[in-house]
Amino acid sequence: MLDDAWKIWSSSDALSALCVWFMLLFGRFGLYVYRGGGDADALDLSVLSFGLTYAISTGVLVVACFWQVRTSHAMLLIVNSWSASLLQGDASCMESKASWRRVSGLFRKTSRTFERCFAALGFIIVMLVLAALYDLIQGRGQELLASVSLALVIPGVLWTHASTTTACNRLPSLVTLIEADDEEEDREYMGLALYLSLSECGFFVWDTCVTLSLVQKFLYFTAAIAGTIGFQTGALNFQSRGIPID
């Protein structure tokens, strides 16, 4: 069952990454086709060089996002497998504690491996927003398609990691709902729930837990700062550009 879920998630993640990459390429090169009017003279060496560079850079970014999401889904399947073995009675509380130590250690090792990538994705979001504001100031509104597309895709990667961490944080409440046959077993479940809450399992970025609230705050403050800069510089002043706002 887990193998089937892993294959489905892997296939859907790969298909989504491929579709996103094609959308980015279409959004960027469609502008050149539109501006050049399909003339062969418009496809000079500089345009081809830019197109190749853009395709490689966006491909690397999409592959990095794909591996982030794929790793997060793999960890979520491990958590679901652990909780299923406990709920079905296949593992005792002591066995569950021992297996959870391995799961928690795997989360820590994975976080240390990808924490720089987490931070880089957040930095890319900020830079894309600033680049979009700069394009608006320069009057290049058509250049926003690729930047906006990337700015909408990358937060989904952070949201996936935060959802996996949330699933780990909800395990103690799940354990407390298990009906025990006697008081001794009930104390074992309560001890297991306390152990899970103290383990602080999930994805971390330099000892900062990646939660849904953290991602929401990051996106909120990024949007607030971008809006402030946009109105101060006139990038979002649509009336001065002759754009009706009614």
Q: Overview of this structure, please?
A:
The protein is built from seven helices and two strands. The protein is an all-alpha fold and 246 residues long. Strands 1-2 form a two-stranded antiparallel ribbon. Strand 1 and strand 2 (208-209) form a beta hairpin. Residues 37-42 and 239-246 have low confidence and may be disordered.
Highlighted features:
246 residues, mainly alpha, two-stranded antiparallel sheet, 7 helices, 79% helix, disordered C terminus
Layout of secondary structure:
Layout: H1 2-36, H2 45-87, H3 93-137, H4 144-169, H5 171-176, H6 183-199, E1 204-205, E2 208-209, H7 212-233
Antiparallel strand pairs: 1-2
Helix pairs in contact: 1-2, 1-4, 2-3, 2-4, 3-4, 3-6, 3-7, 4-7
Please provide the count of β strands.
2
| Major sheet size, sense and barrel closure | 2 strands, antiparallel
Please give the radius of gyration in angstroms. Answer: 23 Å
Our estimate of the beta-strand percent is under 5%
> How do the SSEs run, as a string of H and E?
HHHHHHEEH
Decide which structural class fits the backbone.
Answer: mainly alpha
Q: How would you describe the shape?
A: elongated
Query: Which sequence of strands runs across the widest sheet?
Result: 1-2
Q: What is the overall pLDDT average?
A: 76
**Termini separation:** 54 Å
Q: Given the structure, what is the number of helices?
A: 7
Low-confidence stretches: 37-42, 239-246
Helix coverage percent: over 70%
**Quaternary structure classification:** single chain
